Amino acid sequence: MSIFRNLWSRRFEISEKRMEICMKCEHYNEKLHQCKECGCFMEAKTLFASVECPVGKWGPVELNSDGELQELKDGRTTGQD
Q: What order of strands is seen across the sheet that includes strand 69-73?
């Protein structure tokens, strides 16, 4: 399976982790499921691996050669925190 297809298949895992962070954030509008900073509807935004939180609480991710998720910071792979 290609890295892209593997990343796509893990989009719900990525989204779930991001939503846990968002739901605790002071910028999250629980009623609308929307970020007050960027205006995005977070249940949709968190599904995309290449996007990031506007206040830096989570960033884009990729899969390394071992299939592990890695967060990207400033265009560089930093590994999982």
A: 61-63, 69-73, 76-79
pLDDT for position 80: 41
Closest C-alpha to 58, from 46, 66, 69, 68:
46
If you write DSSP's letter for every residue of 12-48 in order, what string do you get? HHHHHHHHHHHHTSTTEETTTTEETTT--BHHHHTT-
In the chain, where the domains are located: 3-79
For 2-47, what is each residue's pLDDT tens digit? 666 777 778 898 999 999 999 999 999 999 999 999 999 999 999 9
